[in-house]
Amino acid sequence: MESQPVSPAINAAPATIVFDLDGTLIDTAEDLVASLNHTIAAADLAPLEAEDLSHLVGHGARVMIERAFSLRGRPILEDQFQPLLERFIEHYKDHMPGKSQTYPGLLDALDRLDKAGHRLAVCTNKMEGLARPLLDGIGLTRYFAAITGGDTFEVRKPDAAHLLGTITKAGGDPRRAIMIGDSRNDILVARNAGIASIAVPFGYSDVPVADLDPDMIIGHFDELTLELVEELLNKAG
Known about the structure:
This protein is 41% helix and 11% strand. By secondary structure, the protein is of the alpha/beta class. The protein is elongated. The protein starts with 15 loop residues before the first strand and ends with a helix. GO terms for molecular function: metal ion binding; phosphoglycolate phosphatase activity.
């Protein structure tokens, strides 16, 4: 009897898919700018628009506060930071999730990856104490095996240890991992960790994401298929 050709086996080992938060999973710019404007009102600064700061989302509240003072032509003293930061955090926590919402197709993509047995995680420079209640409020926490923030470790993105530590917390293997993000820090941390990267163009990057040279760009989460994940891992492998 003539033998039948055997199809190449698909690597069944689960992958770890790590997502950035702001500008990747969730559109948070409007709420962050609202909290920033509440914060700088204490210093008698005029409010800013989302377009003034959207590219700074993901760098932390301190950078946003610094940028607000700079845009208004005012110096900021070191001893001003802590009370302003506390004011920002209090307002942001009290109003979350506010108007923040997931990007189109995200929930279907998370379901698809989760049902296939892949591990999911969040690696964000947002403080962990802000990231977790935001994810809770939008109903996403249940998807993630690990959630780490900019204060979870001694380092933060783009330091490779932040991403590698997140993968470890999720029980994953860096050799089968992908980082998905919208900005320079996300693509850099993946490169520094030797991990494949996917960029999304709908977030808060200050340059076109193609200029960051990710391994792949997807314009919608409908494109984040199981086949694409395996293709990218095999290519990076």
